[in-house]
Write a structure and sequence with these properties.
The protein is α+β, with helices and mostly antiparallel strands and about 100 residues long. The chain has one domain: Alpha-Beta Plaits (2-Layer Sandwich), CATH 3.30.70. Helices cover about 40% and strands about 30% of the residues. A four-stranded antiparallel sheet has the order 2-3-1-4, with helices on one face. A hairpin with a 2-residue loop joins strand 2 (about 25-30) and strand 3 (about 35-40). The longest helix has 19 residues, at about 75-95. The chain is elongated. The termini are far apart.
């Protein structure tokens, strides 16, 4: 997903750190008056719960928009976790 987060400068480091934790790739930062817009691509699966986290770390002063960007292959470590979870559920159903 293409995510654009607009935040006051005081919270910029926290916002960028959170995007990185969500496997995001920062594309650009643009000054908008006293705020900074951070544009990044982040997997949709990592975006669940983002608004709560964003409001918490910015005292409700930041906002974001999100739109589809492109498809990417899933990283091997994430694919391995998904495959293991499916195998575990199948084994539980067959037991």
């Amino acid at each position: 997903m293409k995510v654009e987060t607009v935040t006051p400068g005081d919270y910029l480091g926290d916002v960028i750190g959170d995007m990185n934790r969500r496997r995001g790739t920062i594309l650009e930062q643009v000054e908008r008056g006293t705020n900074t817009a951070v544009v990044a691509t982040i997997p949709l699966s990592e975006m669940f719960g983002y608004i709560g986290q964003l409001r918490s770390m910015s005292s409700g002063r930041a906002s974001f928009t999100m739109e589809f960007s492109h498809y990417d292959p899933v990283p091997k470590n994430v694919a391995d976790e998904v495959i293991a979870e499916v195998a575990k559920r199948r084994a539980a159903l067959n037991a």
